[in-house]
Amino acid sequence: MKSVASLSAAVAVLSGTTNAFWRMPCHDRIGLERLDPIVDPGTASSHGHTIHGGSNFGMSTTYEDLRASDCTSCQFSDDKSAYWTPSLHFVHDGGMTEIVPQIGGMLSYYLLYGDNLKAFPEGFQMLAGDTRLRNFSGPVPDPPTSSWTADDMTQVSLGQKSLGFNCLNYNKQPEGSRYRHFLPTKEFMDENCANGIRAELMFPSCWNGKDVKSDDNKAHMRYPDMIDGGSCPEGFETRLPTLFYETIWNTFAFKDKAGQFVWSNGDPTGYGYHGDFMSGWNVDTLQSAVSTCTNPSGRVEDCPVFAGSLQTEAEQGVCKIQNVMKALSADNCSGPTDGLCGNVPVQYGPQYANPLKAGAQGGEAVITPILSSVASMPTQSYAPAHSKVVDSYGGGVSVFNVKPPVVPIAKPTPALAEAAVAAPAITPPAKAEDANPDDGIISHTTYTRDGVVYEVAIKEVINIVTVDSKRRRHAHQHRRNIGRN
Ligand SMILES: *[C@@H]1O[C@H](CO)[C@@H](O)[C@H](O)[C@H]1NC(C)=O
Ligand SMILES: *[C@@H]1O[C@H](CO)[C@@H](O)[C@H](O)[C@H]1NC(C)=O
């Protein structure tokens, strides 16, 4: 038997100097359209998006246009920003495709990590994620943040880990945020995710301090080395708010129906999930909010900056895109219809997907035969976050990277065999002693809206408990980790 000589010390240390945040609910989408003014400006976007925020949104939207929006679908009436991501669709056997019901619009978290936070400047826009990605190069699941190596912290690797698909089941302990970086199989969702799937996306927050945009919408930004917390690379030291999007899709509505889920960009894997942001804030207002909205509840109701300008859900719900574009009149992105709008083909990967063409498209819908609902993906079993109450506002602790991985079931059908050769690398299960349940603990809060429970990590907490001699090394790693933050 292992000797546990134990000194136990419950030490909780916050990493970083601030851990405040608020979440901006956007109760409804303003449209489901092939629009993306930052990636495909001036034309129809290659694929459909679920769009939230300022109503004056279109193919060539500018900051001034957004500011001039008649309304916003977000709770604070003067946040005219635009927030958009791909939408999730269900492809029935035979190709008939329909939108998966979206529950409760979206939440945009403004996580206030780092020092001397600056508001998004006028004209600021950025993109997170890569629509053409169809694979994941890191170990599954993520190693504990305390043991991340340089390989885990390249911008490509951080980007791949910045997104997550949380299997929702409100009768179970919630999974941790960004625990799983791919869309689980339909079978898995039917069995486990009674409340659907929550798509999660963390944006980079380290800015080069001068460019409000860049050609690829990414070059002016970097992730800090812990994705949310951590330090910024050289040349990108200006810290902006860390945006974190959550969008819930009711995949369970298709339980027992034959078919598969696919994102609007033709991605059935989830690796190509991405999100766009165009600031529509008055800069002074956002700066005040960033500096003063530090109530740990994260509720916009609890921040004086937003007082008197909060909309009801009904008010948010009536806000829609002001000008419906002729070029898009032939589109029907919600369906049921044949295929995806924009005639987007489904691309399984694992190789980098072919680029999609922007612009209005005629012609036949691309009906991609369903090869399999298992696109050579790893599996990660439902992994409840370790939950501990650590704060006075009812938050728990969400740990998402301590469970030894379940060995993947890569069961390609014959048709898929060729595409399946390069399933993501899977590391052997972590040794028990490495699976310190306190590694990478992050706290989260929950709140309920429309019967939907939302929760998110808001800060990293290092909690060292019952350290035996073998684990002390871990404790040191944690301390180094704190130092870096
Ligand atoms: C899309 O097509 C479906 C099926 O024909 C129809 O019920 C729905 O109203 C259409 N939606 C739009 C926005 O045209
Ligand atoms: C995975 O994606 C990357 C980035 O697009 C690509 O370079 C690589 O070839 C892909 N891996 C495989 C096995 O296709």
Automatic annotation (TrEMBL):
InterPro entries: DUF1996 (IPR018535)
UniProt domain DUF1996: residue ranges: 36-281
Keyword Signal: yes
Signal as UniProt keyword: yes
Pfam annotation, one family: DUF1996
Alphabetically ordered keywords of this record: Signal
Transmembrane regions: none
Superkingdom of origin: Eukaryota
Coiled-coil intervals: none
Signal peptide start and end residues: 1-20
Official protein name in the record: WSC domain-containing protein
